[in-house]
Amino acid sequence: MAKDKVCLAYSGGLDTSCILAYLIEQGYDVVCFMADVGQEEDFATAKAKALKIGASACYIEDVRREFIEELCFPAIQCNAIYENVYLLGTSLARPIISRAQIKVAQREGCKFVSHGCTGKGNDQVRFELAFYALQPSIKVIAPWRDPVFYKRFAGRADLLDYAAQKNIPVSSTKASPWSMDENLAHCSYEAGILEDPNVTAPEQMWKLTVDPAKAPDQPEDFTLWFEKGLPVKLEYVEKGSNKSVTDSVDLFLACNAIARRNGVGRIDIVENRFIGLKSRGCYETPGLTCLRAAHMDLEGLTLDREVRALRDQFVTFNYAKILYNGLYFSPEREFLEASIVASQGSVNGAVRCRCFKGSFSVLGRWSETEKLYDMSESSMDEIGDFEPQETTGFISVNAIRLKKYGRMREEKGESLVKGQ
Prior knowledge:
alpha/beta, single chain, 5-stranded parallel beta sheet, 13 helices, 5-stranded antiparallel beta sheet
C-alpha cells in the first residue's frame, strides 16, 4: 500500500530536520520544499541533508521576483505599515512561500502539507490560511500543535538527542540566544534573550545593517524613479561610477545595499500578534524603508489630497492588517489591491534621497507629468493666479459651525478662553 505523501516546508535547521525524520517514522512519504526568497542559505547543503535523512525529493523554488513584484511593490504603493512601525517583512513573504509549497504538493500528489511553526506565533496562521484558500481539500500537519510531538520533544535537548539517534547532522549544540527569519526585504529577530522587552538587543545580533554609529562619515545620495507608484529606476554612484538599474530585483538589491552600508532600517518594537499575544521583535528592513519613504514623499507632490486621505484611512491600514494576519488569499485583499492600483495613476516622478548614519532623508522631488503643485500659486513672493481675497469667504463659511459651537459653550458658562 502506498504511503500518504506530505510536503514539508524545510529549512535544514534542527527543528524541521527532526520533523522530517519524525514524519518518516510515522509512515509518511515526505517531499521537502524550500523557498528562495533571498535569504542567505546554503540550499545545496540543505537539500543533500534532507535526502540523506530520508526525503523522497527536495524542491528549491526561486520566488524572489514574485516576492518583490507581487508583494513588496504593492506594499510600497500603499505605504503599508503595521501598528505605525513594522514594514511587514516576514508577513510579505508568507503568501509567496505558501503558494509555491502548494504547487509542489500538487505536482507530487501530496495529500498533506506540513510546517515547523510554533503554536504561539503568527506564521502558523499565515501559512495555514493560505494553504486552505489555495487548495481547500489540503490537510495540514502541524507538529508543534500535536501533543504527542511537543510532549516528546519538550525542549532543544530532546531534539538534539533525537537528531543523534537518527544520525541527523547538526551544526551546533548550543541554543541560539534568539531566532531569525530572513528574506530579501528584511531580517527579523525574536525569542530567547529578546523576550525581555527591556533587554537591549546586542550589536552582534544585527546581521544586515552596519551599526549607524560606525557607518560612513559621508552621506550617500541616490535618486528613485516611480511610475504609477512602482519603483522603476534607481540612479546612484558606486566607486566613482554612475550606476542605473531598472530590473525590479536588481533595483531592490541595490537599494538594500545602499541602506545596509549606511545603517538604515533598524527597529525594535513590541507588537500585537494576531492570536492575541504581545511579542517583542527586532527588524532590519533596509531597502524597503527607503523605497516606502521615497514613495510617500512623491505622493505629497503628485497625489490628490482626498484620494490620499481615503487611501490612508482605509486601504493602507486594512491592507497591512490583512498581510499581517495571513489573509492575503481573500476577496478583501483583491478588493483593496484594486483600490491601490486605482489610487496610483498619478504617482509618477523622481525623488532625490540620502542615507546617512541610520537615517533616510529626502533632498528633493519632481514630476514631469503631474501638475498638482504650482510653484507660483504656492509662493509667498508672488500672487500668481491665486486671489488672496477669496480666502475671506472660505474662512467665513468654515467659521459658521465653529461660531455656533463657541456661543453654545459661552451660554453654558464654559468659555473656551478659560480652557477645558
